[in-house]
Amino acid sequence: MTDLFATESKLQPAEMRIAKFGLGAVVRHRVYPFRGVVFDVDPVFDNTEEWWLAIPEEVRPRKDQPFYHLLAENAESEYVAYVSEQNLVPDTSGEALRHAGIPDVFDLDEDGAYRLRSAHAN
C-alpha cells in the first residue's frame, strides 16, 4: 500500500524559504546582462528536469530555493525568464523597463513601483 502523503512534498515546511523578492520587484541577474520584474514566484524549483539539466553543471542552481518568473530584457530582446534566487540581485539603476508585457500585468504607481493589476491578483 502506498502512502499518499509521502510523495506530496519533497521539502518539509521548516525547510521552505521565504522569497527574498516580491511581485513587482525589479531585479537583475548576478552574472548575465539582463534584468526584469518579478511576476510570479515558485517556493522551490518547478520546471522540467530537462530545463535544469541543460544548465552547465558548474553554474547549475540548487533546486531548494525560490525561483522567479520575470518579464526580462537585455540590450537586444524581451522575454520571460525563470531564475533562481541565488542568481538575482535588486536592480537599483532606476532605469525604466521596456518589456511589452508589463502593462498587461502591472500598473505603475505614483512612486514608480510596479503593482499587480487587479485582474492578475490571486
UniProtKB/TrEMBL annotation:
Residues 18-117 form the Hemimethylated DNA-binding domain. It comes from the Bacteria. It holds the Pfam family YccV-like. Keywords: Stress response. Transmembrane segments: none annotated. Signal peptide: none annotated. InterPro entries: Hemimethylated_DNA-bd_dom, Hemimethylated_DNA-bd_sf. SUPFAM superfamilies: YccV-like. This is Heat shock protein HspQ. It comes from Methylobacterium marchantiae.
